[in-house]
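Before a colleague's protein record goes any further, I have to sign it off. What it holds is a sequence and that sequence's fold in token form. Would you go through it and say whether the fold makes sense for this chain? The record follows directly below this note.
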Amino acid sequence: MVDVDSFIEEKIEEIATEVGDANAVIALSGGVDSSTAAALAYEAIGDQLTPVYVDTGLMRKGETEQIRETFDYMDSLRIVEAKDRFLDALSGITDPEEKRHAIGEQFIREFETVAREVDADYLVQGTIYPDRIESEGTIKSHHNVGGLPDVVDFEGIVEPMRDLYKDEVREVARDLDLEAIIAERMPFPGPGLAVRIIGEVTEEKLGVAREANHVVEEELEDHDPWQALAAVIGKATGVKGDNRVHGWVVAVRSVESRDGMTARAQNVDWETLQRIQSRITGENENVARVLYDVTHKPPATIEYE
């Protein structure tokens, strides 16, 4: 395990040295990785840092409001409304890797726009070790590693946590006194709900995925999963009232893990699963059925795309 105090001291010095007198933007998503990177960078360079939260339209329910509340102490926080640009970039794309690359490129373009406005030369990211392993090993591209475009308009990209696993990041977050809602929050993919939707991303599918994920996170909170999620995986027939419907199929997944490199499907009791399916199908008239995924990693990945 990492020596947290030494790590924090070392990384603050590294960031300050690398950025120097220049300005930097930090890609802030609200997850523990980017939030911890933001806290480290803010300690290192203070007002030279502009935290940028991009509302892609692919985020969890209430995410933007949570960001405003948690990081209101950073006066330079920018919230960029970019939903339409991301949905345009994803239009017609069904391949998972193409989705990740489209999202990665759009993220960079959003950060470049803000960087020009604040005269920033550096981009700080919350990349962690599993992101690099999975991208370099071609398991999947992460939007902040393998999903980056070939040409990036920054003098440098700073990744203070690139050698840490998720559990080590949480230790650093606690030591930096980040709120528990951030430090203990379960992982959420950088490309957001786009990788919890099989096939093309549409507003309808996003609405279903967002509400279903909210239900799953609420209902499984006491089960303490490493990660729990819901994915829209296709359509199937069902019956609602006296009518036959052709509605969405939602897969629920909950896993136990230490670092995300391997994971085991969680043994969730039948009563809880029934409550989840009842809420998801009852609260969304377009959902026909709910499934529970019992596959471990490997052979499956945690996310669906």
Notes: Confidence is low (pLDDT under 50) at residues 142-146. Strands lie at 23-27, 49-55, 78-81, 120-124, 156-158, 227-240, 243-256, 264-265, 287-292.
